[in-house]
């Protein structure tokens, strides 16, 4: 019988290299506690999934430890849920919205102690056309802003001066000035709703924030078996840029004909063109998305602050 062990996935690029540093500390604690593990320094979702699948066949896996940001955590929830493997997340990203939602500890010593205690809770997951995620599936202008902020030349430049936090507002202004709204029809829990002719963004939240604490779905809870949907539509560019968007991301519930809040267990978005959707930081391009809420689909090891 193979020895019981953990699969550890470390993303060396999360949080500008924080992951490896945290892993060294976790490694020391695991050695002291005589806990067996195998480690992958991952560079893509695919290698992480293959790593877990392979260990499932050859070892007696007790769970998956992720040391990385929201993208790394999101990349293994599909395989973890498929094999019913508990997951522990040590946040090492730049945004860490998953950690924020579950009040996860950032301290490696506390983390390993609670990993060993192995108290777990079941959490809901989002499922976008078969791809699972923990936090928010967001399509439209906010997805474009996130992509622009992450891949812009000014992010790396600003990071050098410790001003990386400015990348998002710069990308927001830039994108809001050029983005063309799309026409969208929605089917919510099997029922077709009216068309939104001028949609700026639609965000379906299992948890409340993305982008490092931007509260776009303030009511979302990861154990209530519904997703909370925020739609910004039919606003003028100037009103969205200066009035609605900043308030929306602060988590203020906005009473405005241009902002709609819905809840659903499943929805289909049909856009009049291909749009960008981001799920846990990962981009998906399509004109149709079916998003479901998979209740209690993941076992999370509680490693709280
Ligand atoms: N297993 C993995 N899953 C997803 N992305 C990975 C993985 N390993 C490496 N990467 C790459 O690392 C990048 C950053 O990963 P991640 O999202 O975890 O960190 P971050 O962007 O610093 O933090 P956050 O998402 O919390 O803001 C991803 O965009 C991807 O290119």
UniProtKB/TrEMBL annotation:
Matching entries from Gene3D superfamilies are given as: 2.60.200.40, Probable inorganic polyphosphate/atp-NAD kinase, domain 1 (3.40.50.10330)
Q: Which UniProt keywords apply?
A: ATP-binding, Kinase, Lipid biosynthesis, Lipid metabolism, Magnesium, Metal-binding, Nucleotide-binding, Phospholipid biosynthesis, Phospholipid metabolism, Transferase
Which Pfam families does this chain map to?
Answer: DAGK_cat, YegS_C
- Record has Transcription as a keyword: no
- Fetch the InterPro entries from UniProt: ATP-NAD_kinase_N (IPR017438), Diacylglycerol/lipid_kinase (IPR005218), Diacylglycerol_kinase_cat_dom (IPR001206), Lipid_Phosphate_FormReg (IPR050187), NAD/diacylglycerol_kinase_sf (IPR016064), YegS/DAGK_C (IPR045540)
A GO molecular function for this record? kinase activity
**Keyword hit for Transmembrane:** no
- Needs which cofactor? Mg(2+)
Report the residue ranges that make up the DAGKc domain in this protein: 1-132
**Mind telling me which PROSITE patterns this protein's record contains?**
DAGK
User: Could you say which protein family the record assigns here?
Assistant: Belongs to the diacylglycerol/lipid kinase family.
Q: From the Swiss-Prot or TrEMBL record, give the protein name.
A: Diacylglycerol kinase family lipid kinase
Instruction: Supply the source organism for this entry.
Output: Sporosarcina aquimarina
